[in-house]
Amino acid sequence: MTKSKPLERIAEDKFVQWCKDQGWECLKLRIDGENGFPDRTVITPHCVIFVEFKREGEKLRPRQAVWMERLSTDLGQWYLTATDFDWVKEQTAAIVKSCKEGTQG
């Protein structure tokens, strides 16, 4: 019997492939001794975007909230998503477009 992937993992896998299709890096970074760093760091020619995938109704853990505050500066954009791949794709595309136009980051 095959164990199914958690729903947020399915959205994350689709998101990673979409980022690759755009020519962007979509990294899963780990920091030794630290918890809560975002699930994905997207590097585009115009900006860096930090993405945390959550199931609908889940809240940030305390260390995730700390990282969100640290990274919600000029370093990049932060946003949450439930299992909705289309939403995160649209938000990412909008952020990159505004970075290209020089209206953000």
Please outline what is shown here:
The chain is of the alpha+beta class and 105 residues long. It has three helices and four strands, in the order H-E-E-E-H-E-H.
Description:
The chain is of the alpha+beta class. The chain has a single domain (23-100), classed as Trna Endonuclease, Chain: A, domain 1 (3-Layer(aba) Sandwich), CATH 3.40.1350.10. It has three helices and four strands. It has helices at 7-22, 62-71, 85-100, and strands at residues 25-27, 40-43, 48-53, 77-81. It has a four-stranded mixed beta sheet, covered by helices on one side. Strand 2 (40-43) and strand 3 form a beta hairpin. The longest helix has 16 residues, at 7-22. It starts with 6 loop residues before the first helix and ends in a 5-residue tail after the last helix. The mean pLDDT is 86.
- Domains (count): 1
Rounded to an integer in angstroms, the radius of gyration calculated over CA atoms is 14 Å
Task: Tell me roughly what share of residues is in helical segments.
Answer: 40-55%
Q: What overall geometry do the principal axes of the alpha carbons give?
A: globular
Largest sheet: 4 strands, mixed
Question: Average pLDDT value?
Answer: 86
CATH architecture assignment name = 3-Layer(aba) Sandwich
Looking at the structure, the CATH topology is Trna Endonuclease, Chain: A, domain 1
- Uncertain regions spanning at least 5 consecutive residues: none
Question: Keywords, please?
Answer:
Trna Endonuclease, Chain: A, domain 1, 4 strands, 3 helices, 4-stranded mixed β-sheet, 105 residues, 17% strand, alpha+beta, single chain
